[in-house]
Amino acid sequence: MHKSDANYTGIRFDTKVGPVVPEMPTGDRPYRLVHEMPEPDDTGRTEVEMRRFPQIYKPRGVAQRLNSSSLADF
Fold first, then answer.
1. What is this structure's pTM?
2. Burial letters 47-69, b for 16+ CB under 10 A, else e
């Protein structure tokens, strides 16, 4: 999925706790692993950042780190 208004491209994975998206930014921002909430919480949040990776990693390195953290266990 590509969200041009949020400046990232990502892949949504359905997990036990709901959708999780590894975000690959288009600018200088870091890579993020985000849990998307089905409904906004009491403060209005619709996502929770789970992990952040600096852009010193190439996309393949980020994918390997996500794979080693066992995304399916979330």
1. 0.64
2. eeeeeebeeeeeeeebeeebeee
